[in-house]
Amino acid sequence: MLKQGNSIALKFNEVVHNFGKISIDSGAQKCQFIFTNVSSSPVAISNILSSCGCTTPSWSKAPIKPGDKGVIKVTFLNDQGPYPFDKTLTVYTTSSDKPIILRITGIVYEKGRPLGELFPAKFGPLGMKVHAQDAGQIEQGLYKTQSENIVNLGKSPVSVKFAHPSKGLTISVSPAVLGPGDAGKITYQINTKAAIHWGTTRYTADIICNGKVLRPKFLAECVIVTPYSSLTSEQVENGPEMFAESGTFNFGTAKVFKEIKAIFKAQNKSAKPLRIYKVETNGASIKVDCPAYIPAGKKFTITAIATPLKKKNDEVFIITLITNSPERPLINLFLTGDVK
Length: 340
What we know:
- With 340 residues, the protein is mainly β.
- It folds into three domains: 2-109, Immunoglobulins (Immunoglobulin-like, Sandwich); 115-225, Immunoglobulin-like, CATH 2.60.40.10; 234-339, Immunoglobulin-like (Sandwich).
- Helices cover 3% and strands 59% of the residues.
- The strands form six sheets. Strands 12, 14, 16, 18, 19 and 20 form a six-stranded mixed β-sheet that branches. A five-stranded antiparallel β-sheet has the order 1-2-4-7-6, with no helix packed on it.
- The radius of gyration is 27 Å and the shape is elongated.
- The chain starts with a strand and ends with a strand.
């Protein structure tokens, strides 16, 4: 039963319809949500909002008398390619301002392709599309919530939960029990207030399946940058900023295991101090000497020592500076050339 305000207005036969696994070439799929008016007054459905244009509801606009039944017919177009889907229908009635949420779920697969190919990242009997989730950029002090699909690739039901998440990570799965071939949704939130990190940051959690800890762990990566969205345009424009004479150092031709030294000349031309919170590189063979605090107007140098580990034409070593500049929170410097 679904409560409307302090009373029960409509009772549905189900609020989640699972289509299961359906082929991508099987065409549109249809289902019905049947309900009964269990209140003492007529109730009409005033509107139904779909979370996606691929899902279309239809219903009678006439009021349903007490004790009578009604039906909401739903068409899922099945025209968006192979993927697990979870669509919502928000039902508004005349009995309450609080809506009723209905869902349709399922997995669309390509004909002839097993479910394991659609979810190649394996965690025991579970599958996901990738092993590392990409949460993108997050400003320090803020949080971001995302969701990913997870499927049971095994032949038996499994219970899924998470344990020992990294500080700042909260994570859950719904439903908690997945039948063979069923899909669930992982929802995770990264809260950067919980711990101060900068640049590329990894958050992990143990996946517990039927009481057993799986490997690898759940992993989400993000890039934490200086806050800027809450600043005014004037604050952004007048914020600290680094200007380099050149952002690229061409070392010509170098030899494997021989050090390459590059010096980048730069200046903080703003009226506020420039901070470099963290330096990242695209290779363990790069060492960078860089000041963390540059006063207003101060010139400075960044020295990089790169040791090529393999032969490669058009090699590019990347140095990424994570700064407090609201206009350029991430600054890249490049070392380019051929390694023989």
